[in-house]
Amino acid sequence: MKIVVGVSGASGGIYGLRLLEKLRLQSHVEIHLILTRSGEKTLFLETGKKAADLKALAHCSYSLEDISARLASGSYRTDGMVIAPCSIHTMSAIAHGISSNLLIRAADVTLKERRKLVLIVRETPLHLGHLRTMLALAEMGAIIAPPVPAFYHHPMTIEDLVDHSVDRVLDLLEVPSRTARRWEGAATQE
User: pTM score, two decimals?
Assistant: First the structure.
């Protein structure tokens, strides 16, 4: 499988980092990374990790300005794309077909080729324009997957919360994590 991972400048670079770490454990997955400059800065501010740390987890990484990269063409087959985190700016550009850089172009290609595009949108609260943009993207085939924590697995750390959202994204990509904690239903007492 070939999975494209984009990391934009929204808060939550840890989602992109953990996604890359978990994808790297899958021997059958080839990872293609696009990192924005603001994504690089936010990742460092929030985690202390540098661009090189993310690039080391990918099989291929691309310059944001390289619109001649293979990911800019629908003839280069991939199995899906995730933007983790996805800023409102990036989400809006994708929704309106503004392919001003490789991240947005690769997302546009993913949609036009009817491949899975998962957006881990990081913003709250949302105004009507954000919601309408999300609706438009959902109508185009994108999957909007904000990182909403679950508590049924009794998370003890921030990583537990992050991993739950990342594991849900891996399920959407059909690359399930072996360590995913799943709801098994409530036990009933008789």
Answer: 0.95
